[in-house]
Amino acid sequence: MSAKTPADPSPFDRLRLQFRGWRGTRPFWAGLLVAISGVPIMYFPYANLTIGQLTIRMATTAGAGSLIIGILLVVLGISLWFQKHVRTFAGTAAILLGLVSLPVSNFGGFFFGFVPALIGGALAIAWAPGAPESTKYGVPEGDVSGAAPAAAAPGPAEATDGMDTATEPGGLNMSKSNESYEPNDLSGTSPVNGANGRHSAG
Question: How far apart are CA 109 and CA 44, in angstroms?
């Protein structure tokens, strides 16, 4: 009885996963809100509202200014998708353009452009790239450069003829002594046989 192999993902699922990975590496929602905010800001000053036989033109004295603000917001939103390193500048500019649209473009496109511009700009400023996933020891997955080298396994004990391997630096043999090892103190008088003159006198 053979194990079942997982079915290959469909082209739609593959595209969806690729888009999901692309979206997660940039301030996608901030760019979307900023780009959407430019549409009502540049649309309403050039639109005509017809009620029965009454036609209301919503053009303002700064119609060209509304068009420029709307186009700039759309460009800033697209820039947030493809140039994520300008997120702080683009977010600040989107907030400022949204505020300028209040007196210039029918209260920021009747607030349909002003509110998304403020939210999208704030999201762009607050967005930060994610940190790589780490294991429980704090080392990123697949990165073994930061891991501590494994300790070498002790080899088999080698036979020695009358030679004690537990000799400490300085010529002291600590294998047959219960005293703790004390390094040579050269601060006293002349040392004799590796011992301090102060210790040998007393």
Answer: 6
Quote the DSSP letter at residue 189. Answer: S
Of 145, 147, 128, residue with least CA distance to 136: 147
Cβ-Cβ contacts under 8 Å for 125 (sequence gap 6 or more): 87, 88, 91, 92
Q: Quick one: CA torsion of 9, 13, 15, 17, rounded to 10 degrees?
A: -100
pTM over 0.70: no
pLDDT-based confidence at residue 64 (cuts at 50, 70, 90): confident
* DSSP character string of 135-187: -TTSPBTT--TTSPPPPPPPPPPPP-SS--S-BPTTS-B-TT--SPP----TT
Residue type at 122?
A
